[in-house]
Write a structure and sequence with these properties.
Oligomer: single chain
Shape: rod-shaped
Number of helices: 9
Number of strands: 0
Order of helices and strands: HHHHHHHHH
Radius of gyration: 38 Å
Helix content: over 70%
Distance between the termini: 84 Å
Strand content: under 5%
Largest sheet: none
């Protein structure tokens, strides 16, 4: 059994590989396809009457099955498609918030209190003045000085965005 199969492979595999290459259009796929067919042929070698016709038929059917399987399978999406789209992970916002919190810690206590109550708690100047027992003018000046210092410490872009909404 082994002698006839070995002779068939040594004399006919080049021609079958060319045939598989014409069917698939890709050398790697053609080699894989031919290998699969030759493995199946080896198992049932005794029952095969015309090995060349059997191999050509098996190669054709396997290629057809592969085409059909591709149509049934969902389209694969390459990784490059995923990398094209930037998905924010919130890291930038957390970094910005950390810079703001650190800058707030560096403000004098009264400026920090005015900034937190005005911009984080959304209190009015009157409410802040009553709470801190200072005049509205003091609230305004402390807010102005605090925002100026924050812009310097955090950066113009972040400071402007933070105070505008």
């Amino acid at each position: 059994m082994g002698k006839g199969f070995e002779e068939f492979v040594s004399t006919g595999s080049d021609r079958l590989l060319r045939f598989a290459l014409l069917l698939t259009g890709d050398r790697g796929h053609a080699e894989d396809l031919l290998q699969d067919v030759l493995e199946r042929m080896y198992v049932s070698w005794r029952t095969i009457e015309d090995p060349h016709a059997y191999a050509r038929t098996a190669l054709t059917r396997k290629v057809t099955d592969r085409w059909r399987a591709r149509r049934r399978r969902p389209r694969e999406v390459g990784l490059e498609d995923w990398h094209a789209e930037v998905v924010p992970d919130g890291a930038g916002e957390r970094a910005e918030r950390s810079r703001i919190v650190e800058a707030l810690r560096r403000l004098p206590p009264r400026q920090r209190a005015v900034i937190v109550l005005r911009y984080f708690e959304d209190w009015s100047e009157e409410q802040i003045a009553d709470q801190l027992d200072v005049s509205r003018g003091t609230v305004k000046s402390q807010a102005s000085k605090g925002l100026s210092t924050l812009r310097t410490l955090v950066g113009e872009e972040v400071g402007a965005r933070w105070t505008n909404g």
